[in-house]
Amino acid sequence: MNRADARKLAEQLVSRMTLEEKASQLRYDAPAIPRLGIPAYNWWNEALHGVARAGTATVFPQAIALAAVFDEDFHQQVAETISVEARAKYNAQSAHGDRDIYKGLTMWSPNINLFRDPRWGRGHETYGEDPCLTSHLGVRFIKGLQGDGEYMRVAACAKHFAVHSGPEAIRHEFDAVATPKDMTETYLPAFKAAVEAGVEAFMGAYNRVNGEPACGSKALLVDLLRGAWGFEGHVTSDCWAIRDFHENHHVTDTAPESAALALKNGCDLNCGNTYLHMLQAYQEGLVTEEDITRSAVRLFTARYLLGCFADDCEYDSLPYTLVDSDEHNALAQKAAEKAMVLLKNNGILPLDPKKLTTVAVVGPMAASDLVLKGNYYGTASRSVTLLEGIRAYLEPFGVRVLYSAGSDRVVNRVEHLAQPDDRIAEAVICAENADVVIACVGLDETLEGEEGDTGNFSASGDKVTLSLPESQQRLMAALAGTGRPLVTVLTVGSALNVPEGDAQLLAWYPGQAGGTALARILFGEVSPSGCLPVTFYKGLDDLPEFTDYSMVNRTYRYFTGEPLYPFGYGLSYTSFAADSLKVAGDEVTLRVTNTGAMDAETVVQVYVRAADNPDAPLHPALAAFRRVAIGAGEAKDVTLTVDPNAWTVVNAAGERIPAGPAFDLYAGLHQPDARSEALTGTKCLYARVNR
């Protein structure tokens, strides 16, 4: 069904409603209108990395981990799988009259905000710090969710529009000030791409943007989104964000005024309760019936596009048995394997189980089920912790596994009545009796997450350091002191600086099959192939104030210091060489050879910078990427298409204009920076391109 037809049907249906009925449909928990055959509908659902908060579903690696795969096709496959489960669950639940929260077809995903600062607690919900990567992955996630059928399989929602990336603690009152250049160059490209991809919905942010609350911003919602970009879908508020207008931002005085400001500027749906005051706003002359009708029509257009009132929707027959299938579990495992990033290796990895007698698995994250999940997750029926994965893998080889938590995640003891560091001696004993130590340390959603989440250790969910919690730091120092070979496995959704370890593998929040995937990588069945979608910094001293939204000295494009691990970086168990670079128009071709002894995947990356142009970013920016599988000794010609934005620059007025005539183009397996070259021992290929 095309939008014009759906809108016509929506207009006809809404025209039969009373004013009160129209207003009631602007709530996220829209009530039924029995006389018109309209069932209740709850708009709030989540699909960040699997159907969330509504019972059993396949739990994929967290969004930041999916970004580390650097694979558009695979990303869309994951989104398609999520949407199939969402529709199958909806079909079964609605047939039983269950129309509760988290059980609709409007998925408030993906989160395509830019991860500009490693302190931001919600950064692991995003696709990282780069506009090109975020745009391409966001588009494919949207297409995977919505499908290409007669109706939408589910509706995607691009959030949080548009300048939102912490701090969490003050998001309800904060004004994010960004220059026109930073808006166009950094904060807006992924959202513009989402509109071009046909995304059905946008969600605003809690904070103000350049003085206006995002969920009631004329500049963002009227002038840009619906005006310049021609967006025709619907807009929802973030949850209880409109209440912030009068309670925290103080741009209005009353709830009716807040409801009117949001509605007038195009926020159709209220997640929260402020639109309960819409009829009072009408009585006070703050909104018209036409304003209310306009938003109701947009919302019912979405429901028609989803086939909610159709007898012939092709997705209505999707059975519940598709949920949590073996095939989906296998895909979750594959995603975790592709996402993990080898940060450091002195040759200790991969481990050979045939040469091992005893392995010590130590750390508070080893046996944690929570650490697999990230946030906004469903209930996995077959979770494999890191410890379980390692133990299951080694069992056929007769290798003994010794385990100790070693420490609490964050407090200084495991048992409340014990002395501080009450598990360190046990951890050291395990290490002393083992051939190798695998330390599973890091964070989880209670240590980096969303403001107000009940499980957050800190009120804001933001990080205050790039180091491990002190309890885990003491554990790592004790393990390093044993002199035993030490493999560090990091579970985290953002940058950390953990110096200990002969090898260091970034597992992220790897999803339900995380333990199985980790073991297959540690013991050499699969080569690690993920790449960092964010810069890992050495510390916070190198960065501007958290509240500074300027891009000066932020992300790899503008950072002036030396990173710990650069954006785009990741090691392998094999070696690759690139040569024969050719550039023809927007196409870049190079030959990549697997010069090692192991079949593996790698990510080919292209970076471009307008030569000698003062409006260009400080460093070459990602312009194309492609994951390829190459057998040992095999060579492949790889062709990539450069993102059109790479041939432009954004000036101080926020105008994107053609650049050139000369461009510096780099192609290879990482960024063209000195730190990446030092860590990998390879250089990117270079071409001067004239256009």
In terms of DSSP E residues, the strand content is 15-25%
Q: Identify the CATH architecture of the largest domain.
A: 3-Layer(aba) Sandwich
- Rounded average pLDDT: 97
Widest sheet, order of strands: 9-14-13-12-10-11
Within the CATH hierarchy, at the fold level, what is the topology of the largest domain? Rossmann fold
Task: Report, as a whole number of angstroms, the end-to-end distance.
Answer: 42 Å
Describe the main β-sheet briefly. Answer: 6 strands, mixed
Please, how many domains?
3
The whole-angstrom Rg is: 25 Å
CATH H-level superfamily title of the largest domain: Glycoside hydrolase family 3 C-terminal domain
Q: Tally the helices: what do you get?
A: 19
* Uncertain regions spanning at least 5 consecutive residues: none
Class computed from helices, strands and strand pairing = alpha/beta
Estimate the helix proportion, in percent: 25-40%
What's the shape? globular
CATH class of the largest domain: Alpha Beta
